[in-house]
Structures are given as structure tokens and as C-alpha cells.
Design brief:
There is one protein chain. This protein is of the alpha+beta class. It has 3 domains: 47 residues, Helicase, Ruva Protein, domain 3 (Orthogonal Bundle); 92 residues, Elongation factor Ts, dimerisation domain (Tetrahydropterin Synthase, Chain A); 103 residues, Tetrahydropterin Synthase, Chain A. It is 46% helix and 21% strand. The chain has 12 helices and 8 strands. The strands form 3 sheets. Strands 1-2-3 form a 3-stranded antiparallel sheet. A hairpin with a 4-residue loop joins strand 4 and strand 5. Helix 3 crosses helix 10, helix 9 packs antiparallel against helix 12 and helix 10 packs across helix 11.
Length: 291
């Protein structure tokens, strides 16, 4: 299979590896980008898992909220110049209002919404008009809605870098929902998700498919480590434990005090408020990143 220069360039940007290594990885994977990254991880040549979501797309991530729900969405442009254009900003602002008013179930439903804010046009039709006016491709790429039960839940949000990363975190508690301590915790957790990019709330929430794939990678690494076969299972278990500590929110080291983990940070607020607190879910959108 012939590998294009564009494919090699993309893999280099995602892994930071040399051209020939990337080209060979793509050849071995028959052009499958994700498989190439996975194989490179098995070879221990890259930290691709941490960098594979990076891209150069511009635009803005936006968060809007009311008492019953919060919405985070992403609109992309080709250049940062267009992302600062008044027409682009106006479109994003109006889109946020429309999404919060209607709270559609998914992205496709959101694109079909109509509103007086867009002259009675649908979101996708207004977007097509905007593209024609600005002369640059613009996409309404992602949309996530998080509902809340006001009696026992609160959603906390954080927007980083003027719309580069948007985070929603939902907490459940039996008291002190509107206390300063709970607000401080919510902010800390949202910032944690933005900075540390966990894949799940806790290890129980990590899918069996992800765990199986990590074990496969660690098994390959152990087999090629030169260490005795009898300790391979211990190596795999140790690496999996480290994976949970690095990629699940509750077990991550707290970014503002790495000597404690997030579970300890939550327990601190529980002690201060007397509340029982649980992280229910989170959403993180990073501008231009792949899901």
C-alpha cells in the first residue's frame, strides 16, 4: 500500500517521531493511523497516547448553562483570524442561546434547529451562509448536553484559554450544594479535568475494551523487555495500576497539590461540609482534538 506524504506528516505531528519511523509504521498498519500509533506504543517509541488528540484546528469551545442543564459545544474555523471575526463570534453567541433554549439531544438534532436569531433559518443553513460570506470553511463539530437534578446535583464548568478547552463536571451531594466549599471543589475538579485529561471518573468506569487493549500493549512491552517470563504478569499489573492512577479522575494526583489525589481533595470538602459527595460525570472538549 502506498503511503502519502500527508499521512506521514500527520503521524509525525501526533507522535513527534521521525519521518522514516512514521512511514514504516503506516506501511506496517496498512495506512491505519490509529493502528500505527498503537503499534508504536507497543514498541515503546512514543508517548502517542498523550499526543494523539492534538491538532491545529482553530475556532472556539463555548459553555452555556441554566438551572436545568449545561451545554458545551465547538465551532471550528480554518484560522484563528476568522475565529476572532465579529460574524463568527455573533454566530457562536446566537448558537449558544439557541442550544440552551432547545436543549437538543444530539449534534444532528442541534444542526436542524431553526430560530429567529438566524432569520428563521436552520443552524446548518445559517452556517452555510456564514461560510459563503467569510470565505473560509466553518464547522459546528461537537455538542454535549449535561442535565442536572437541582435537588441533589450541581454542574460546575471551566473554560480555559479563551475557548481552547471547555469542561463540565457534575457532582451529587446530600447537603451544602450551594456552599462556597462545594463551589471551590467544583472549580478544582473542572480545572483538573481540563489540565489532566482523564478518560473516566474512576477505574470502574473504564470500559473493558480499553482495559483489554492496555493489557495487550503492556504484555507486548513485557515480552520485549528482556525480563523473565515469570514476572511478566506483575509488570502488566503494575503498568495497569499506573494507568488507572494517571487516567482516572478520582485517582489522579491533584494538579494544585500533587502530594494528594483527587479522592483526598473530595474527602477534604466532605469533612468541611459534612456532605457525602460523588462525582457523577464529566465532559471535556478540547479545540480541534479527536474523540
Amino acid at each position: 500500500m502506498e503511503i502519502s506524504a500527508g499521512q506521514v506528516k500527520e503521524l509525525r505531528e501526533k507522535t513527534g517521531l521521525g519521518m522514516m519511523i512514521c512511514k514504516q509504521a503506516l506501511i506496517d498498519a496498512n495506512g491505519d493511523m490509529n493502528l500505527a500509533i498503537e503499534n508504536l506504543r507497543k514498541q515503546g517509541q512514543t508517548t502517542a497516547a498523550k499526543r494523539a488528540g492534538k491538532s491545529v484546528k482553530e475556532g472556539k469551545v463555548t459553555i452555556v448553562s441554566d438551572s436545568s442543564a449545561s451545554v458545551v459545544f465547538e465551532v471550528n474555523s480554518e484560522t484563528d483570524f476568522v475565529a476572532r471575526n465579529e460574524d463568527f463570534i455573533s454566530f457562536v453567541d446566537n448558537l449558544g442561546t439557541i442550544l440552551l433554549e432547545n436543549k437538543p439531544a444530539d449534534l444532528e438534532s442541534a444542526k436542524k434547529l431553526t430560530s429567529p436569531l438566524f432569520g428563521g433559518l436552520s443552524v446548518e443553513t445559517r452556517l452555510t451562509e456564514l461560510i459563503g460570506k467569510i470565505g473560509e470553511n466553518i464547522t459546528f463539530r461537537r455538542y454535549k448536553k449535561m442535565d442536572v437534578n437541582p435537588a441533589e446535583e450541581r454542574i460546575f464548568s471551566y473554560l480555559h484559554g479563551n475557548g481552547r478547552i471547555g469542561v463540565l463536571v457534575k457532582l451529587k451531594a446530600d447537603k451544602a450544594l450551594d456552599s462556597e466549599a462545594m463551589a471551590s471543589l467544583g472549580k478544582d475538579l473542572a480545572m483538573q479535568v481540563a489540565a489532566a485529561n482523564p478518560i473516566a471518573v474512576d477505574r470502574e468506569s473504564v470500559s473493558s475494551e480499553v482495559i483489554a487493549k492496555e493489557k495487550e500493549i503492556y504484555q507486548t512491552q513485557a515480552q520485549s523487555s528482556g525480563k523473565p517470563e515469570k514476572i511478566w504478569s506483575k509488570i502488566v499489573d503494575g503498568k495497569l495500576e499506573k494507568f488507572f492512577q494517571e487516567f482516572t479522575l478520582i485517582e489522579q494526583a491533584f494538579i494544585r497539590n500533587p502530594d494528594v489525589n483527587i479522592k483526598s481533595r473530595i474527602q477534604e470538602t466532605e469533612k468541611e461540609t459534612g456532605a457525602s459527595i460523588k462525582v457523577l460525570s464529566f465532559v471535556r472538549l478540547e479545540l480541534g482534538a479527536e474523540e
